[in-house]
Design a protein that fits this description.
It is a single chain. By secondary structure, this protein is of the alpha+beta class. It folds into two domains: 96 residues, Jelly Rolls (Sandwich); 65 residues, no CATH class. It has four helices and nine strands. Strand 1 and strand 2 form a beta hairpin. Helix 3 crosses helix 4. The chain is elongated and about 55 Å long.
């Protein structure tokens, strides 16, 4: 990583892809893998967005305005630290806000962690595997009935019969 400086006041706001209409962004730092990302997020009055999570630590510093999340109001001057994989949101803002967002670098090599998780899951009973997947799959695949790419990955990893059973149990849970 090189030292750098930028005057964000001279930068133009760009549309923020993947965020509600009217959301803007100024990217201050966007490195490759293992380097993190820093940007300004501008949300408009009346902003609403569902909750989500990230694979890295996320930090917010509210520079202007305020937003509400998890029943708390984060006003100008507030610093917020959100651990990786923790769902945050839904979000709303009655007056809009400008937020400095910092994503910590993601881990470069996750293969050791995948092997560790694989061993732990292999040692679970069939019922515990199903419960594990029922907790994890919704984080990875938002809609089991419509996300064909995710279903194909699950079939490859766990087998078609097992995935069919998971989907059946998911539908039963939705009905309840």
């Amino acid at each position: 990583m090189k030292e750098g400086s930028i005057n964000y006041e001279k930068m133009k706001w760009a549309d923020a892809p993947g965020y509600p209409e009217g959301s803007k962004i100024k990217i201050l730092r966007e490195g490759g893998p293992g380097e993190g990302k820093t940007f300004l997020r501008k949300i408009k009055k009346g902003f609403k967005m569902e909750g989500h999570s990230h694979t890295t630590v996320e930090q917010h510093i509210v520079l202007k305005g305020e937003y509400e999340s998890e029943g708390k109001v984060f006003k100008a001057g507030t610093y917020r630290l959100i651990p990786k994989h923790e769902t945050h949101g839904p979000f709303k803002s009655s007056q809009g806000a400008v937020i400095l967002v910092i994503w910590d670098p993601e881990e470069k090599d996750l293969s050791a962690k995948f092997e560790e998780m694989k061993k732990a899951v292999q040692n679970l009973s069939r019922e515990d595997k199903i419960r594990f997947l029922q907790d994890v799959v919704p984080l990875v695949c938002k809609d089991l009935s419509g996300d064909e790419e995710c279903i194909d990955m699950l079939k490859e990893a766990f087998g078609e019969t097992f995935v069919r059973e998971i989907m059946k149990r998911s539908e039963e849970m939705i009905i309840i």
